[in-house]
Amino acid sequence: MHKHEEQQLDRSSDTGLTVQSSTFRFLGKDVTEFQGFDTFPTPPNMESVTMTSDEVTSLCPITGQPDWYTVTIHYSPRSAEDGGLCLESKSLKLYFQSFRNEGLFCEAFASKVADDIYEALKPLAATVTVVQKPRGGIGITASAQKMQSEANG
Questions:
Q1: The pairing of beta strand 85-87 with beta strand 125-135
Q2: Does the pTM of the predicted model rise above 0.70?
Q3: Residue ranges of the chain with pLDDT lower than 50?
Q4: Average pLDDT, the chain
Q5: Residue 34 contacts by C-beta under 8 Å, 6 or more apart in sequence?
Q6: 125 with 145: CB under 8 angstroms?
Q7: Do 54 and 33 form a contact (C-beta atoms < 8 A)?
Q8: Residues labelled as active-site residues
C-alpha cells in the first residue's frame, strides 16, 4: 500500500479481540504541521485512559530557550453508544511535536492541551498535567481540567 493512501487497520488477530477497523485521517501521511487528532470509538467497559509523554518541548516565551515537559493526559471517555471516542497515540505525538517552536508558559500549555483534548473527544472529563523540567532551579507543575458540566453550562 502506498504510504499516502488511507490505511485501514484491523488488529483483531493480534489481540484476540474483535476490533472495528478504523480509517485514520493523518497517520501514514507526510505532514509538516499538525492536521488534527485521529480517534476511534471507545471500546466496551472503558472507564478511563491515561497517556504520558516525556518527549515534549516548547520555547520559553520570554527567553526563547527550550522548555522540556512531561505531559500526562487523563480522560474519562463517553461510551461508544454515546458517541465516545478515544485518542490515537501517534496523532498525540504529532500534536506535541507541533509545539516545538511555540512560545508558551507551562500553565498556558496545560490549559491549551486540555481544551484541545476536550474539543476532540468530548469526554466526561479530561485532566492535563504538565511538569516542566527545572530551569534555574525552579520546576513547575500545572494542571488543567475540563468537565462535561463545565462545557455545557
A1: unpaired
A2: yes
A3: 1-21, 31, 153
A4: 84
A5: 94, 95, 97, 98
A6: yes
A7: no
A8: 60, 67
**CA 114 to the chain's CA centroid:** 9
Q: Which residues contact 29 (CB under 8 A, 6 or more apart)?
A: 3, 4, 35
66-106 residue pLDDT tens: 999 999 999 999 999 999 999 999 999 999 999 999 999 99
Residues contacting residue 38 through CB under 8 Å, at least 6 positions apart: 22, 24, 25, 26, 27, 87, 88, 90, 91
Beta-carbon count within 10 A of 7 CB: 15
Tell me, rounded to whole angstroms, the distance of Cα 82 from its chain centroid.
20
* C-alpha cell read off for 81: 453508544
Q: CA 52, CA 68: separation in Å to the nearest integer?
A: 14
**C-alpha pair distances (Å), 126 with each of 34, 38, 75, 79, 92:** 21, 17, 4, 15, 15
